[in-house]
Amino acid sequence: MTVIDQAQPAPSPEAAEPRPVEAPDVPRRIGGVSRTGVLSVLGAAVSALCVTLLLFGELAPLTGPLGFTVTWYLVFLAGYAALVALDEDGPAIRDRVMTVVLWSAAAVLFAALALVVGFTLWRGRDALPHGNFFTQDMQKAGPLDPLTVGGIAHAMLGTLIMIVIALAITVPLGLTCAVYLNQTRGRYARFVRTVVEAMTALPSIVAGLMVYATWILILGQQKSGLAAAFAISLMMLPIVIRAADVVLRLVPGTLLEASEALGAPRWRAVWHVVLPTSRSGLATAVILGTARGIGETSPVLLTAGYTAALNADPTQGPMVSLPLAVFTFVKSPEPDMIARGFGAAAVLMALVLVLFAIARVLGGRGPGHQSRRQARRTARASRRDVSRFADLHAPALPLFDGENA
Where is this chain compositionally biased, Basic residues type (predicted)? Predict the structure, then answer.
């Protein structure tokens, strides 16, 4: 056998050249903190400080700490935008500048909150360590008595009684009205929505005067904690209705449509689908209303009166709240009374924090997020449904007939 050697074709120059290795794609980082961003912020802040010092000290007749701060911030924004423009384009510049503005606003709000809380605790530091401050009332204490005598037990109890009564009135009415506005369309619903929006801007003194005129002057009732709770509920009701209405609007309409397609009536769909889905948002609405009502002073002053003794009956006799006690204490020129006032303000802030925590626990997590207890309860319900379905589809046993045996 003759082997014929076939000539192999010469490799082409293009095939002989090695292909360039492509670099892997590196995703661009669009969030977080980078070294360039930190250096840009620091450089803009230092340069703005230098320019502002030059303006206030040499070039312009400007004075005042507020003007210095505003000028420094404006120059800082301009300098930061100029530094970002060296590496980025127009949309990125606007995004970075707005990010700095939002972070600055958040920092200012947090600083203001920390200042208010810190100043209140510092001014009330003389009254808070005494145990009698939380267990005694001011019936046997005068303006010249030391801090070891007297306390705010009557104001704490009065605030709790008033806010509980106000919540018992406001929460059912507010949530019912919000569900009505969310599920009903028509002229009457628009009229109710207009009235609710108008009541949001209602001055607290007007609500107190209305309850004072109707409950005390017309009906002949005496000043009491119940009358103050009525006035507080008038202030809380529009806040709860508007916030709950906004939350109910966020519930997807497909959930309600699916429940109605399965044969559930509208009230059952709202009760078992809409309200549980928006439970955390409704808890937030109640929190906002509570924060509005618990700090009211003028309605309580007009409808509940003032007393230095402990009164646990909201229907008989005057009753005092913590905001009214703070207002009364700080009017005194005595340092001990002023310390009692700031101590009562600190207790009021702690009470609001506790109520917020309780409402958050009752509200639970957002839609789609279950706690361990809720997950266990859902698993038990699923097991019961599985066994019930299995019993429905189980084959029926034949009946025993003695004659055909």
Answer: 370-381
295 three-class SS: coil
**150: alpha, beta or left? (left if phi > 0; alpha if psi -120 to 50):** left
Q: How far apart, in Å, are the Cα atoms of 312 and each of 224, 364, 384? A: 11, 32, 47
Single-letter residue type at 255 = L
Contact in structure between 265 and 197 (CB atoms under 8 Å): no
pLDDT given for residue 110 in this prediction? 94
Q: Which single residue is written with the structure tokens 């409808």? A: 303
Runs of H (alpha helix) within 250-334: 253-261, 266-269, 275-277, 279-294, 298-303, 322-330
pLDDT digits (tens, 9 = 90+) for 247-268: 888 888 787 778 778 777 888 8
Please give the model's pTM, rounded to 2 decimal places: 0.73
Choice between 104 and 392, residue whose per-residue pLDDT is larger: 104
Across 57-66, 97-106, 185-194, least confident range:
57-66
Mean pLDDT throughout 206-212? 90
Give residue limits of the domains in the chain: 36-123, 135-367
| Tens digit of each residue's pLDDT (9 = 90 or more) over 131-165 | 888 888 888 888 888 888 888 999 999 999 999 99
Judge contact between 351 and 323, C-beta under 8 A: no
Q: Which residues does 140 contact at the CB level (< 8 Å), separation at least 6?
A: 149, 150
Query: How far apart are alpha carbons 322 and 153 in whole angstroms?
Result: 9
The pLDDT of residue 1 is above 50: no
Q: What is the C-alpha separation between 201 and 207, in angstroms, rounded?
A: 11
Phi, psi angles (nearest 5°) of residue 42:
-65, -45
Residue 350 CB partners (closer than 8 Å, separation 6+): none
Query: Does 135-367 carry CATH code 1.10.3720.10?
Result: yes
- Least Cα distance to 278 among 248, 242, 246, 254 occurs for 248
Contacts of 313 (CB under 8 A, 6+ apart): 224, 225
pLDDT the model gives residue 11: 53
